[in-house]
Amino acid sequence: MISISKLSKAYGSVDTSLLIVLKNVNLTINEGEFVAIMGPSGSGKSTLLNIIGMLDNFDAGSYQFKGQSVPSLNSDTLAELRLYNLGFVFQSFNLIAQLTAQANVELPMLYTRLKKTKRQSNAVQRLTELGLGDRLNHKPSELSGGQQQRVAIARALVNDPAVLIADEPTGSLDTETGIDIMHLFQRLHQNGKTIVMVTHEEEIAAFASRVIRMRDGKIVDQGLAA
Ligand SMILES: Nc1ncnc2c1ncn2[C@@H]1O[C@H](COP(=O)(O)OP(=O)(O)OP(=O)(O)O)[C@@H](O)[C@H]1O
Ligand SMILES: [Mg+2]
Question: Residue 122: CB within 6 Å of ligand 1?
C-alpha cells in the first residue's frame, strides 16, 4: 500500500540554516496494518505522517502509494487520490465550530458525486455506528472531547478511505476516553482498515500491530521481528 524509500526532507535553505527533518527514511506499510509511530518531540513523526497523507512534499527519495509514484501526480489526481484513499484525524479534532456533528461529517462528501439525501444518510449512519446517533444536531462545543473525536473519526471514514491517518488522536483526551478511541481503532483494524497513527503514549501504541520508533529524523526501529 505504502512504500517509502530513502526519503529526506529539510526546512530552510542552505544560506539560512538547513534543518534536516527526515533522513533517508525507508518504510513499507501493507494493507490492513495498524502502525503506531513513536519518538521524542521534534523527531519528525508529524512530518512523516503528513508526507504519507500527501499533505506535505519532500526533497529526495521515493513514495509509492498503491504502486503510484506520489510526486509524479498532478494536483487534480492527487486531490482525487486523497479524497478516496486517506482519512485524517488530528489531536485537536479540527471540526468546524459553526456546523453540527452531522454537517461536519457530510463535508468530505461534498466533493463526491453523491446526492444530498445520500450524503445525509451516510453521515447519520457513520455517526450512529460510532454511538452518536443522538448527537447529530449538536455543535462541537456541545460535545465532550471524546465525542468530538468520534465525530472527527466519522468524518475521516465517511468516504471509506483505504488508510486512516491519525496524529496523536488521543493527545487531548483523558486516559479512559483515549482507550475508548483505541478500541474503536482496533475494531476498524479488525475490519481491515489500514491505520497509521502517531502517539506519545506507550499504552496507546500497544493497540497497534506494529510500533515504529523515530529519533532525529530517522527510523531507529521498524517494529518488525528479527
Ligand atoms: N513548517 C516548518 N518549518 C520549519 N521547521 C519545521 C516545520 N515543521 C516542522 N518543523 C521542524 O521539524 C522538526 C520535526 O517536526 P515534527 O512536527 O515532524 O516533529 P514531531 O515528531 O511530530 O514532534 P511532536 O511530538 O512535538 O509533535 C522539528 O524540529 C520542527 O521544529
Ligand atoms: Mg507531531
Answer: no
Q: Which CATH architecture has domain 2-221?
A: 3-Layer(aba) Sandwich (3.40)
55 Cβ closer than 6 Å to some ligand 1 atom? no
Helices (H) then strands (E): counts for the chain:
7, 10
pLDDT tens for each residue of 27-56: 999 999 999 999 999 999 999 999 999 999
Ligand nearest to the CA of 218: 1
| pLDDT tens per residue, range 105-143 | 999 999 889 999 999 999 999 999 999 999 999 999 999
- Residue 134's contacts (CB-CB under 8 Å, 6 or more residues apart) are none
Best probe residue, ligand 1, of 19, 49, 55 (max atoms within 8 Å of C-beta): 19
CA distances from residue 164 to 26, 33, 125, 157, 198 in whole angstroms, order as listed: 20, 11, 18, 8, 11
Report the distance separating Cα 169 and Cα 124, nearest Å: 22
What count of residues does the chain have?
226
User: Rounded CA gap, 67 and 162, in Å?
Assistant: 14
